[in-house]
C-alpha cells in the first residue's frame, strides 16, 4: 500500500524536488500540494510534509493534523536550530533537514506509514455571531458555553474583533489574552494552563484590546488547540462580515435582536450567507413574541431555535459580572438540547 | 526570559514578526503562482491518479470518456484500465 502524502507548498527547493521524486518513483501517492490549511485533505491522508518556513504551520496545526490521524514530517533549513526545535516541540513525527536527498525522504515516509496514527477525539466548535450591532452575542456565547459545560468540558473564546468585551463582562484582567495564547501556540501544541481563565466552571480565553485583527492562522490555532482539549468550544465571532467570520465553527448560532431594525439587519446578512444555515436566537423579545417569530421567520428564512425575553435581570447580571441570569439560560435550553442532539459523538480511539 | 517577551518590547516583537510573516507569505504566494505557471496537464493527471479521481476526458474528435484515472504514461492516460487516451489528443479534462 502506497501512503497518501500531501506537501505544503513552499518557496524552498525541497518541496518541488520531493514532488518530482515522488512522481518519478511512485513510492507514495501525492494527493495534494497545499497552499492554505484548507487545501490539506486531512481525512484522506497518511502523511503531511510541511516546512517550518510556512507561517501557518504552527505547533497547534501539527497537533491538529495528528489528532485527525496523520503523521507529520517537518522540514527545516539546514542549520536552522530554532526551526528544528520548534518542530520537535510541536511533536512532528519526523524532523528532517531540507537538504536531504528526496529519495531518502521518500524512504522515511514509507517507513513512517507502516505505523498509522490513531484518530483522537476532538471537540465540537460553535461560533456565535450576529448582524452588526446585534446585542447579546457575548452573553449568548457565555450562557451557551456555561450550559454546554454540563455535558462535558467547555471553553469560551472571545474572537470578536470589534468589541472583545468578555474580559469586561467577567471582570477579568486584560491579560493574558488571546494574543498571548496565540503566541504560545506557535511553540507549543496546547493552550498553557496559565493562559486561560477558569471561571464559572469554564475555561475562558479573553479577547485583546489594541490589536483588533488577529491573523486568521493564529485564530485557527487557538480554536484547534481548544478543540483538542475540550468537548465543547464556543467562540464569540463578532459581527458576521464574510464567511471567514464563522468558518472555523462546526456550527453557527446567529443572534438577532427582535426589534424591526435587528430583524432587517439579520435578513441582510442572511441574504448573502454562505454555508449551512445557522441556528437563530431571537434576543430581547418584547410583549408580542409571536409577531417577532413570524417576522424573523419571514425575513431570514430561519426558524428561531431560542427566544430570549427582555427582562431587567438579564441586563443586571451582565452589569454585575455574574453568570448569565437564570431566565437567559432557561431560554437557551432548547438551543443547547438541539446542539447536544446533533453534534456527533467524538470518535473513539482506534 | 525571551527578551522579546519583555513588556516594553512585546509590541516591537509583534511588529517584527508580522513583517517576517508578510515576507514568508509573499514567498509562498509566489511559489503557488510559479507552480500554477509550470503545471502541465500531465501533472494534473498524475495528481488525479494518486487521488483516485474519476474524470471526464474530451479528445480532439469531440468524444468524451469518463472513468477513474488508473495510470498516466509518458504519452497517454488510462481510464478504468480500459480506455487509453493520448495526452496530445486531450483537449478538455473535467474533474469532479
How would you portray this structure in words?
- The complex is a heterodimer of chains A (350) and B (96).
- Chain A has 350 residues and is α/β, with parallel strands linked by helices.
- Chain A has 12 helices and 13 strands.
- In chain A, α2 links the parallel β3 and β4.
- In chain A, α1 crosses α4, α2 packs across α8 and α5 crosses α12.
- Chain A is elongated.
- Chain B has 96 residues and is of the alpha+beta class.
- Helix content of chain B is 42%, strand content 29%.
- Chain B has 2 helices and 5 strands.
- Chain B has a 5-stranded antiparallel β-sheet with strand order 4-3-2-1-5.
- The radius of gyration of chain B is 23 Å and the shape is rod-shaped.
- The model of chain B has no long low-confidence stretch (mean pLDDT 89).
- Chains A and B meet through α1 and β2 of A and α1 and α2 of B.
Strand content of chain B: 25-35%
Distance between the termini of chain B: 52 Å
User: How much strand of chain A?
Assistant: 15-25%
Class computed from helices, strands and strand pairing of chain B:
alpha+beta
> Number of DSSP helices of chain A?
12
- Residue ranges of chain A: pLDDT <50 for 5 or more in a row? none
What's the quick description here?
The complex is a heterodimer of chains A (350) and B (96). By secondary structure, chain A is α/β, with parallel strands linked by helices.
Amino acid at each position: 500500500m502506497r501512503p497518501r502524502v500531501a506537501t505544503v507548498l513552499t518557496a524552498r527547493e525541497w518541496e518541488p524536488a520531493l514532488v518530482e521524486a515522488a512522481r518519478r518513483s511512485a513510492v507514495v501517492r501525492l494527493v495534494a500540494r497545499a497552499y492554505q490549511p484548507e487545501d490539506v485533505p486531512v481525512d484522506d491522508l497518511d502523511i503531511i510534509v510541511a516546512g517550518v518556513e510556512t507561517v501557518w504551520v504552527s505547533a497547534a496545526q501539527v497537533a491538529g493534523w495528528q489528532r485527525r490521524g496523520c503523521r507529520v514530517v517537518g522540514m527545516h533549513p539546514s542549520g536552522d536550530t530554532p526551526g528544528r526545535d520548534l518542530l520537535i516541540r510541536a511533536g512532528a513525527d519526523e524532523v528532517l533537514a531540507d537538504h536531504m536527498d528526496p529519495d531518502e525522504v521518500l524512504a522515511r515516509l514509507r517507513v513512517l506509514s507502516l505505523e498509522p496514527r490513531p484518530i483522537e477525539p476532538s471537540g465540537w466548535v460553535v461560533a456565535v455571531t450576529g448582524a452588526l450591532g446585534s446585542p447579546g452575542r457575548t452573553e449568548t456565547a457565555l450562557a451557551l458555553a456555561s450550559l454546554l459545560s454540563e455535558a462535558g468540558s467547555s471553553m469560551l473564546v472571545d474572537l470578536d474583533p470589534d468589541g472583545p468585551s468578555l474580559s469586561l463582562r467577567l471582570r477579568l484582567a486584560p491579560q493574558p489574552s488571546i494574543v498571548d495564547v496565540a503566541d504560545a501556540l506557535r511553540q507549543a501544541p496546547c493552550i498553557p494552563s496559565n493562559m486561560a481563565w477558569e471561571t464559572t466552571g469554564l475555561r475562558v480565553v479573553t479577547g485583546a484590546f489594541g490589536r483588533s485583527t488577529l491573523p486568521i492562522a493564529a485564530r485557527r490555532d487557538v480554536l484547534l488547540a481548544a478543540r483538542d482539549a475540550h468537548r465543547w468550544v464556543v467562540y464569540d465571532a463578532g459581527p458576521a462580515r464574510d464567511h471567514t467570520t464563522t468558518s472555523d465553527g462546526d456550527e453557527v448560532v446567529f443572534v438577532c435582536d427582535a426589534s424591526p431594525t435587528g430583524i432587517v439587519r439579520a435578513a441582510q446578512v442572511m441574504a448573502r450567507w454562505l454555508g449551512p444555515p445557522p441556528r437563530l436566537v431571537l434576543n430581547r423579545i418584547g410583549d408580542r413574541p409571536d409577531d417577532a417569530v413570524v417576522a424573523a421567520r419571514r425575513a431570514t428564512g430561519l426558524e428561531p431555535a431560542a427566544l430570549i425575553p427582555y427582562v431587567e435581570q438579564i441586563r443586571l447580571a451582565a452589569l454585575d459580572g455574574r453568570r448569565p441570569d437564570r431566565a437567559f439560560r432557561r431560554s437557551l435550553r432548547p438551543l443547547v438540547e438541539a446542539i447536544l442532539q446533533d453534534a456527533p459523538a467524538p470518535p473513539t480511539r482506534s | 526570559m525571551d527578551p522579546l517577551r519583555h513588556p516594553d518590547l512585546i509590541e516591537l516583537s509583534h511588529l517584527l514578526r508580522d513583517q517576517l510573516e508578510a515576507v514568508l507569505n509573499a514567498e509562498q504566494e509566489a511559489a503557488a503562482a510559479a507552480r500554477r505557471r509550470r503545471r502541465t496537464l500531465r501533472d494534473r493527471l498524475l495528481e488525479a491518479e494518486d487521488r483516485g479521481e474519476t474524470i471526464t476526458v474530451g479528445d480532439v474528435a469531440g468524444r468524451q470518456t469518463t472513468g477513474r484515472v488508473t495510470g498516466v504514461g509518458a504519452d497517454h492516460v488510462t481510464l478504468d484500465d480500459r480506455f487509453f487516451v493520448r495526452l496530445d489528443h486531450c483537449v478538455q479534462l473535467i474533474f469532479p
